[in-house]
Structure formats: C-alpha cells, structure tokens
Amino acid sequence: MSSPASAGLFTGFTKLCKGIAVVLVCGHILVQVLPAAVSVLALIPARTIPFAWNLLTAGYIEQTVHGVVVSTLGLLFMGKLLEPVWGSKEFLKFIFIVNFLTSVCVFITAIALYYITREESYLYMPVSGFHGILAGFLVGIKQIIPDQELSLLKIKAKWLPSLMLLLSIVISFLTAESAAYLPTLIFGTYIGWIYLRYMQGKPETKLRGDPSDDFAFSSFFPEFLRPVIDPIASIFHRMLCGRSENSSDGHGHTLGGAPLPGSDPIEASRRRERGARALEERLATEKLATARSIEESKKDDASENV
Q1: Do the Cβ atoms of 230 and 221 come closer than 8 Å?
Q2: Beta carbons within 10 angstroms of residue 291's beta carbon
Q3: 20 to 30 A Cα–Cα from 132, which one of 97, 125, 182, 226?
C-alpha cells in the first residue's frame, strides 16, 4: 500500500497536462512500433524541407524510455504549478510557441554547423523530445516563485534553470548522447524567457511581459557576473524591443518617456504573489489528501484488528 505522503504527491494533476502526457506516451509507443516514423516526425534538418511539420511534431516524440518518463513526470509536476497561475489557454500557448521556436533555432543551428564543419551528421541526426519545453517550464517557475526554497535541493527556485543548464553542459562533455540534448535545452530556456519577459499577455491589465529586475537576463547568472552580462543583454534588449530604456529615469520608459508595453513592476509582483499563493494552495491540498489517507489507513487498521 502506498504511503499517505506519496498519495498526496501524485494528486492534483490537471486534465490538460494528463492529455499532453498521453500524447507523449503515445508518441513514444508509435516510434517503437514503427521506427520509420522517426524520420517523419522527428526534426531531421536535411528533411525539414519539405517535411516542415517536424518543427511542430518533434517536441512530442520521445525516442527513449527514460526520455518519456522524465518528460511525463516533469510535465505533470511542473504543469500543476504553472497552469493554475497562467490559465489553461496560456499554458498551452506557451508550450506551442516554445516548442516551435526552439525547433526553428535547433534547425538553424544544425544547418550552420554543417556549413562550418561539413559534417553531414548535423543534417541527419534525428532530434526530438519534450525537454526544451521542460526547460521553459523551469523559467516559468523561476518567474512565479523565485524565492521559494526547494527542500530536496536546498536552493531557491530562481536558480533551477541555471543549475539545469550548468549540469547539462558538464554532462555534454562526458557523453556524446547528452550533447545532442544541449541545444534544445539552451534554446528552450532562452525562448521561454523571451516569451515570459516580452510577449506573455495579461488580459486583466492589457500589459505584456515581466520587466522586473528579478527576471532580467542577468538574473540567470551569479551576482559577480551581472556587471558584465547587463551591457551585453541590453544590446539584445534594444534589438528585440527596438528601443532603449531611460537609464536615469528608472525602468519601464523609453528615452522619450513613453511607457514600455508590460512595464508594470506592480503586475510582476502580483504575478509572483499568485504563484506563491497557488503553491500554498497546492501544498495545502496535498496535506489534506495526506491527512485523509492517514485517517483511512487508521480506520482500515482498526477494522482489521476488530
């Protein structure tokens, strides 16, 4: 019989996440039963034209057992935290955009590496998996509960994306198989941050993005590196936004004084409060489920003794 704590842990998954999890499992079964499906559904740069749909399908095809297990569990556990805060529509939109743009970036990178090295392996290696979206989810968790300390790792949630990338880079030097995942993880993290930083809409405020300093690009790096990272990041910020912020007047305004879209620190603070509240509600629900399981187990024991 499962323990009450584990029973509470494995509850509260959303219907949308369960549905996407079924898609991941079915995709894995499909490529195991029909291996030729990999050449059609996975991202193979040399075949993306005319098979352009693999820019969409590749993210949902897991070729290994451990890949589908990690992706399914990551989706379920991170989804039950993020979806209540974002809403189902926004959650699905995030998955679609991060998946598609990550695939596009991986495709462009593979083509560029081929022209630089003339190694045909970059053109014909099938790339697929949900891990780019999972990397984007970690950025979402960094955004909504940055100061929440994780009991198992003893670190704050805001460092999850950085720690994941650091470990991935280290492991990629050890095995060639791990190196194949690295571009997807890097682009998934960056695309997820760009979307949340500049594009995510807020219908209740008609604002976009999260301009808070706590979610700046340099926040992914240790404090001592930020003076170096900030000037570089500001160049890409001007390229992306087409405008520069007034350095002497505070954040969220152009040099002409007009407010930037989404430049509302109050809204960013509210978003983090909603995230913390959603986490507290989720933990309270799990504690309640655990308490009920304990009571039921006690009743069962008592009836057995009688």
Answers
A1: no
A2: 12
A3: 226
Burial classification of residue 202, based on how many CB atoms lie within 10 Å of its CB (0-12 exposed, 13-18 middle, 19 or more buried) = middle
Which residues does 68 contact at the CB level (< 8 Å), separation at least 6? 24, 25, 27, 28, 62
Report CA Rg, the chain: 22
Q: Per residue in 51-77, pLDDT tens? A: 899 999 999 999 999 999 999 999 999
Q: How far is the C-alpha of 115 from the C-alpha of 301, rounded, in Å?
A: 69
Taking a C-beta distance cutoff of 8 angstroms, is the pair 166, 160 a contact? no
Main-chain dihedrals φ then ψ at residue 258, nearest 5 degrees: -80, 140
Question: From the centroid of its chain, how far is CA 293?
Answer: 32
The dihedral region occupied by 135, where left means phi > 0, alpha psi between -120 and 50, and beta the remainder, is alpha
Distance from C-alpha of 230 to C-alpha of 139, rounded to nearest angstrom = 18
Helix (H) or strand (E) holding 182: helix 182-194
What's the CA angle centered on 240, arms 196 and 93, to 5 degrees? Answer: 30
pTM for this entry: 0.79
Q: How far is CA 108 from CA 53, 112, 114, in A?
A: 15, 6, 10
H-run or E-run covering 155:
strand 155-156
Q: Are 188 and 133 in contact (CB under 8 A)?
A: yes
Confidence grade of residue 247 (pLDDT, cut at 50, 70, 90): very low
